[in-house]
Amino acid sequence: MVGGWAIAVHGGAGVDPALPVERQEEARRVLVRCLTAGAAALRAGALALDVVEMVVRELETDPVFNSGRGSALTRKGTVEMEASIMDGRGRRCGAVSGISTVKNPVSLARLVMERSPHSYLAFDGAEDFARKQGVEMVDNSYFITEENLGMLKLAKAANSIMFDYRVPLTGADSCRASAGLVADVGGELQMMNGLPISIYAPETVGCVVVDRAGRCAAATSTGGLMNKMNGRIGDSPLIGSGTYACDACAVSCTGEGEAIIRSTLARDVAALMEYKGLGLQEAVDYAVKERLDEGKAGLIAVGRNGEVAMGFNTVGMFRGCATEEGLMEVAIW
Amino acid sequence: MVGWAIAVHGGAGVDPSLPAERQEAARRVLSRCLALGASALRAGRAAVDVVEMVVRDLETDPVFNSGRGSALTRDGTVEMEASIMDGRGRRCGAVSGLTTVKNPVSLARLVMDRSPHSYLAFDGAEEFARQQGVEVVDNSYFVTDENVSMLKLAKEANSILYDYRVPIPETCSAGAGAMQMNGLPISIYAPETVGCAVVDANGHCASATSTGGLMNKMCGRIGDSPLIGAGTYACGACAVSCTGEGEAIIRSTLARDVAAVMEYKGMRLQEAVDWAIKERLDEGKAGLIAVSGDGEVAFGFNTVGMFRGCATEQGLMEVAIW
């Protein structure tokens, strides 16, 4: 059946193979809940843009994933969040970075798109705008979880953010021993963004939707990289990198921000469809395989004719999708 | 014939009634920067070094809207941003929200070379700047009297409209059928950026873009200039720097698209530039400069004018506004 609505969500690429079963179950539950909410809205005729915002708000509010509450912490132990949203119709977009008191960053990104003359607001200016718009604001401590405080300590101990994160940590074994890490697959310590996978918090949540009318939209939201420098901006708020939507498709990415940025990963999926005539899954596979070089990332995508596609070169990506035809699946590996 | 080539720009969207002395001042600066870049390229310098050097010069000169001479925020302050990309390996660095760093493009380079990240902004970027020991100055250094007056005019013109595509009632003498960009009459609008794109003697491409942003912008507003794929892009095939309506450049991923149509549709450089300007901008107004790994140079813009110039190893050297 050509056409029909479809929705995909993700909770980050790069998963600790040793993630406890209860954590996996918890993640699955959140993804199922979000898909169900999105699917119900789509069945009722909701617009793609509204659905992606609603679903990402849900993911931000839940502390399980790294966005909104439950965000990864900066090196100073605070939370700085960022998000972007894009409406395939007209390619309108909005983004925010450096958010520290706004409860739902994705909604602020939407307000930037719809109620400001700009596309992207950050830090104090964004917070100012938020206050003027009357959005819900909370103390920065609201976003901080005990678990992430623990993770931050481990990250600092692992001497994590290295100058060139592609260079394996020296003394990785002693690090592993002292930090109690068991994150290896086939004897090799899995690393992403300079962090061992057991500490690395998959960076983002995202949602892509094509509605009944064939309109696509995407949104991505994150607390960013564990132990990041304050002021660091990743791929999630960058149009063309972490998020992209046009007439043909909508894409949301997750993983190593630097790699996603220089590959303009989300835009490239659409560009491959537009310029090389590739189909959705083909374009997703090509982008993940050819554009990332040694970078590790994943993405979800939907196409205007109701297709869903996913791709990742990481160990695992929290993800799920549902379509009008009745498909509903959630996966981690 | 392959050889080095360099292109520079000082912004797209020029007031047709710009006084002759201003046009001359702009041409002089562009010529000087081209000469600087060309001599470095003749001496075998790498593309990424040359773009940084040339953009530093453009930032330091108050004529264009970057570094000193930047457009002002609605609060009358300066917030600058920049990005740089090395086509070799597609490495990149970007900064936003700078208020005291004398040369934003150099800080962007340091983010690329000396931090684990790609993009730093506001307080965090300023902190990094201090750790790196770059030259910092008071925010007032960047503010020129001319821009203080422009800001007044912009506020009067009720400039940044909610939907900048809606023409404003004509309240200022911008001429009949007042041309608008970003909600401002063209006589007030400060072209947003400076940029440089270079291919060196080894065929490596690089580009950099720097700006004070939109006159009367909201504090915290980020435009296209620091965004990789939007205002700046470089890869093996080419290097691009854009200027104009930020929102339009962002949603067209303009710089990336020039490279993408070369890579995915096999277009040559000028064809790709023309295609991007014509097909990707919709009603948006913008311009761009580009070089290819084969030593070609190309420009494109759908605005009235773009301050630009180029030089090639074959001896071409030209500067233009219209």
Automatic annotation (TrEMBL), chain A:
<keyword id="KW-0645">Protease</keyword>
<dbReference type="GO" id="GO:0006508">
    <property type="term" value="P:proteolysis"/>
</dbReference>
<dbReference type="GO" id="GO:0004067">
    <property type="term" value="F:asparaginase activity"/>
</dbReference>
<feature type="binding site">
    <location>
        <begin position="232"/>
        <end position="235"/>
    </location>
    <ligand>
        <name>substrate</name>
    </ligand>
</feature>
<feature type="active site" description="Nucleophile">
    <location>
        <position position="204"/>
    </location>
</feature>
<dbReference type="GO" id="GO:0008798">
    <property type="term" value="F:beta-aspartyl-peptidase activity"/>
</dbReference>
<dbReference type="InterPro" id="IPR000246">
    <property type="entry name" value="Peptidase_T2"/>
</dbReference>
<dbReference type="Pfam" id="PF01112">
    <property type="entry name" value="Asparaginase_2"/>
</dbReference>
<feature type="site" description="Cleavage; by autolysis">
    <location>
        <begin position="203"/>
        <end position="204"/>
    </location>
</feature>
<comment type="subunit">
    <text>Heterotetramer of two alpha and two beta chains arranged as a dimer of alpha/beta heterodimers.</text>
</comment>
<protein>
    <recommendedName>
        <fullName>beta-aspartyl-peptidase</fullName>
        <ecNumber>3.4.19.5</ecNumber>
    </recommendedName>
</protein>
<keyword id="KW-0378">Hydrolase</keyword>
<feature type="binding site">
    <location>
        <begin position="254"/>
        <end position="257"/>
    </location>
    <ligand>
        <name>substrate</name>
    </ligand>
</feature>
<keyword id="KW-0068">Autocatalytic cleavage</keyword>
